[in-house]
Amino acid sequence: MSVQVAVTVGSIVLALILGSVLLALVGVNPMEAYPSVGALMFFDQWGWQDLFLKMTPLLLTGLGVAIAAQLNLWNIGAEGQLYLGAIATTWLALEFSESLDAHFMLPILLIGTFVAGGMWAAIPAGLRSWFGVNEIITTLLLNYVAISLADYLLFGAWRDPSTLNFPMTRSFGESSYLPMIGSTTVHWGLPLGILLAVLTWILLKSTTIGFQIRVAGDNLSAADYSGFNTKNLLFIVLVLSGAVAALAGMTEVAGIHHRLQQNFSINYGYTGIIVSRLARNHPIGVIGTAFLLAVIFVGGELLQVEYQLPIAVVYLFEGLLLFTVIGSELFLSYRLRRRVAV
Amino acid sequence: MIPVLELQKIHKEFPGIVANDQIDLTLNRGEIHTILGENGAGKSTLMNIISGLYIPDSGSMLLEGKPLHFKNPAQAIAKGVGMVHQHFMLIPNHSVSENIILGTPQAFRLQKSKVRQQIEELGRRYGLELNPDLRVQDLSVGEQQKVEILKVLFRGAKILILDEPTAVLTPQESEALYKILHQMKKDGHSILFISHKMREVIELSDRITVLRHGKVKATRNRGETSPSELARLMMGESTIQTGEIQIKTSKASSDQSQNKTIVRLKNAGLRHELGHCLLQNINLEVRAGQIVGLAGVAGSGQAPLAEVLVGLRGLDTGKYQFAGEEQKGASISELIHKGVGYIPEDRKRYGIAPHLEVAENFLLRNLHNNQFQSRGWLQRDKVTAFGRDRMRAFDVRAASEKTPIGQLSGGNMQKVILARETSRPLKFLLAAQPVRGLDIHATAFLQNQLLQARADGLAILLISEDLEELLLMSDYLYVICQGSIVGEMPKEEAEIEKIGLLMTGERA
């Protein structure tokens, strides 16, 4: 465990060093840029609030992906699940927020989105469990369906006529706004994500179903021979994975935009795969890696604004980090040993 | 006449085991020479040395009188030594001809018509006719084997090694193969043939060499031996040497025929998805307080039988009665509840979750036990305490009960599995190869535990390929061959020779 953390931190440092070379190549002094971007990010009011706002959807999609990964399933569909969650939230908010107050509205949004995301993920889950259809392909393809569904609604039934034909819905009633924490602009989606991560961990470690999931994830044949219903387990885990990822859609539209609009996700769902992978699919670990990816997102924004760097530099940073972290797994699997003289 | 191949004092060791011990062997032109031996006798190692896959530690190899050493299979093929593996090395979605030319030197532009002509010519000469354009995935097992043989012939092999070629074939396909082998022999090819099956060995071979524990026990010419002599050479004399280890072979206390029947199979049959028979007309009984042994060569149907008994598969025909109730369909969890314990043959694949703690692995077939859970919550401290207690009782050596079980040695892993399976109320224990790969102490410990469990009234089915183990442990014996029970006898009437013959498909 401690070795894992040390190797991960070491690889992040290595990515920063490689990144400084990159910055130097595009004419920015890294010794100047790192401290100034760091200061803006962590000590400026706007900076750290943005950090936590970006972290929230990354945490929820990352956790969703990590849940599926417990059974060695790849949920590539977090982006679509996020869109579907946003659609469900929007429908509920547009339908009911005028007539219900926040005490009713917020639980309705939470549960409604969770259920909708779960039902959406039940499609690939059922196909996988009972027909053996590869979940990587189905979840990936359903992304396009969900995004197109959102577009269909935004350009059609849900378009707000008062926005001069921009593809967005009208604003939600205030009872559907996720409340902010204290006087910040950070909404309660972040604590929700952390709570879910902890609950997932408890589920895996302390319940019988979690135990069955861990056995099946470690050795599916042994789970079969233990009399566990592994088909049901696959189904439940993939549904749960989609339901959690869908909540990212809710926190985005109900916490930030207060309406559904086109392209509201900057690939949070796909980045969730990276978040989970970097944390080696550990549900508590994704809290840390979601924060890390948020740092890259916000740091990239600041580099763009402060140093007029192109967005491609941000992607390069992300790539470098992935490269070093995944490359570092070599050091977890193999150790250098001094050859013992015979 | 100079033999085409001569081995002199071939020696090969692997960590902890001498696989080939000073082996001498000759192969003449136009000869079928069979290598006979139990699993682990060193046959495969020897064949892998001849085909260039392994390099021997010492000893020499003469090809037509000239010494040489193969450093890899390509060199062996270049010198005309080709191996037909037991597990086919074919690419399913490529055509027959593509598979055959794979890895052979070809012009940059494939000359398909020329290749096809060559393949058809070879096919005609040896009775290996196949449409070269068919994809391998559409072929039957027998046809796939023809492709493997064609592959070797196409490369110009003069010496062919066939590793248990008939193990996967139907009797008809086997007959066809014998004809092919005879034709090749007539053409001056030399064949090294590996088999367990007594009848085909006797009928087919010009000479037979028996290996046991890595050594050549004897070489016999055609017509100068008998199945019973070969069986004795292969299995060893029927002396059971317990050595330094004391096994409490206490006589079963009372007359077991009065005991309650726990497991009963009646005319049980099972088919493979592709249609061929896995189990045929099996009648078998295991009584409480009895160890029933199931003898058989590997792959004779033990695995599907075990799958039926533990509830992974349902029977296609016949009946499975457990403790008097008929068992319909397949349900592992139901049979666990009714009291079935299982020590799987492949313990790493089916018996454990390697990255979970030792203590957690005690829950694997035990999760329904209310001792460890309450309303869906794991009682972690009880799990840990139970694990620690069982580890002490079964002398499991591990750093702690929280060590991942995958880090344990095979023997300790097996003790955990046995401890787990016997730690809940059981009626029946299916133990498949429970002591395979274990050292002498772990073996004795496990066997004593099984005998103790029998004394406590457990019904035990012991599946093993080791006849000495079976004779030592069992009260009653069944012999399985090609998915059928071919013999049964009480321990008193069991003789190694007789069982060995039955195992290899020879009626005694």
Work out the number of β strands of chain B: 22
**Terminus-to-terminus distance of chain A:** 33 Å
Number of discrete helical segments of chain B: 17
Q: How would you sum up the global shape of chain B?
A: elongated
Biggest pleated sheet of chain B: 6 strands, mixed
Distance from first to last alpha carbon of chain B? 39 Å
**Helix-strand pattern of chain A:** HHHHHHHHHHHHHH
Annotated CATH topology of the largest domain in chain B: Rossmann fold
Determine the strand fraction of chain B and express it as a percent band. 25-35%
Would you identify the regions of chain A where 5 or more consecutive residues have pLDDT less than 50? none
Shape of chain A: globular
From the 3D coordinates, which CATH architecture of the largest domain in chain B would you assign?
3-Layer(aba) Sandwich
- Give the beta-strand count of chain A: 0
Structural class of chain A: mainly alpha
Overall number of structural domains of chain A: 1
- Overall mean pLDDT of chain B: 84
Count interface residues per chain for the largest interface: A-B, 21 and 30 residues
Largest sheet, strands/sense/barrel of chain A = none
Radius of gyration of CA atoms of chain B, rounded to a whole number: 25 Å
The CATH class name of chain A reads Mainly Alpha
Q: What helical percentage do the residues of chain B reach?
A: 25-40%
List the defining traits of the structure above.
heterodimer; A: 342 residues; mainly alpha; ABC transporter involved in vitamin B12 uptake, BtuC; 74% helix; B: 508 residues; alpha/beta; Rossmann fold; 3 domains; 6-stranded mixed sheet; 17 helices; 22 strands
